[in-house]
Amino acid sequence: MEVDGIRYRSIWLAEDGWSVAIIDQTRLPHSFKVEKLTTADQAAQAISAMLVRGAPLIGATAAYGICLGLRQDASLAHLDRLGEQLIATRPTAINLRWAIRQMTDLLRPMPEADRLAAAYARAAAICDEDVAINSAIGDHGLTLIEKAWIAKGKTAAVNILTHCNAGWLATVDWGTALSPIYKAHNAGIPVHVWVDETRPRNQGAHLTAWELGQHGVDHTLIVDNAGGHLMQHGLVDLCITGTDRTTAAGDVCNKIGTYLKALAAHDNNVPFYVALPSPTIDWEIEDGIADIPIEIRDSREVDYVAGLLADGKPGEVRILPESSRSKNYAFDVTPARLVSGLITERGVCDASRSGLMRLFRDGI
Ligand code: MRU
Q: Mind telling me the catalytic residues?
């Protein structure tokens, strides 16, 4: 996508041909800064400190992290250590495990001398595949938005509620939940997006609002608790969110608060769609509530709110009494029964094992 008229992906190989460029997402929306990763340690740190975030992007960063680590030592033992280091960075998004397995399954049987070049080639392919997958998700999701527009007699914009950031910043390009929105906007369908602020890190306010603004998509920021009220008053035509891990039975795990939006949507007959690339499916588990590890992050993220201070400089403000404590659950699980459909690169399916199997019988 474009930033101030310049085309960007969220991760790319730098001009030197080996170091890895990323956008430091902790600085958005107030400053746009490109950082260079030169070691696996830096890649791991970028993932855990959320300079890069979003399930597909952390997978792509881990793939390049393995490349950077192999530059120092391409032995089998080191490859395994790199995999362990990178997988420990964040527990919930399955794309991380998927990307590391893609890399290690390919590289393990190879002669040591061939590993580095093969690693860079596979990491680049993972990025290119992600872009193609998300573009296809956009095409399939576009048909749902178009139907909603036709149902409104093409008289008014389609109101779409989204949570967190599942845009191009969360992937390599296009995004998952935002891809259909960009495609609809590009096709001339009027869309308006309700952007949940997404406490505690405010990915909605900081990232989704910024992305949509850069692309000229009409949007309004709302506090996390407003969605139910909007749905009761007919102000939401459909919800589209992303997911960090989707079970084989169609349960979806996404940013904390997604479940409450799905409940409100169900109560108000608002369609609730979840957009996902197939590497986000965890075929090894069925029950999301029982089996998906939920990341618990530093409670500092809850205790403080980050933004621009009165002097115009970025900073943090404490909102909790010093004597109180907080807990920072980062994700929740929405059971498949609350999901109207899964938007994948192969089409839209029921959130169920049979729905997923219909599209992905041959695996991914
Ligand atoms: O903690 P984050 O910012 O990495 O969480 C991201 C999300 O919850 C996204 O909705 C999810 O990764 C899907 S992104 C395509």
A: 244
pLDDT tier, 363 (very low <50, low <70, confident <90, very high otherwise): low
Ligand 1 in reach of 74 Cβ (< 6 A): no
* Res 364: pLDDT: 57
Give the span between the Cα atoms of 203 and 25, in whole angstroms.
9
Q: Which of 89, 94, 96, 165 to mutate for ligand 1's pocket (most ligand atoms within 8 Å of CB)? A: 165
The answer to whether the CB of 279 is under 6 A from ligand 1 is no
Ligand 1 contact, 134 CB (< 6 A): no
End residue of a domain, out of 71, 106, 129: 129
pLDDT greater than 60 at residue 108: yes
Over residues 253-288, the pLDDT tens digits come to: 999 999 999 999 999 999 999 999 999 999 999 999
Q: Any idea what the CATH number is for the domain that residue 315 is in?
A: 3.40.50.10470
User: Using CA atoms, how far apart are residues 172 and 1, in angstroms rounded to an integer?
Assistant: 10
Asked whether residue 364 is assigned to any structural domain, the reply reads: no
Residue 244 Cβ contacting ligand 1 at under 6 Å: yes
Number of the ligand 1 atom closest to the C-alpha atom of 255? 8
Distance 170 CA to ligand 1 centre (A): 6
How does pLDDT run across 67-93, given as a tens digit for each residue? 999 999 999 999 999 999 999 999 999
Q: How far is the CA of 311 from the centre of ligand 1 (A)?
A: 31
Indicate if 329 and 274 belong to the same structural domain: yes
Give the model's pLDDT for residue 153. Answer: 97
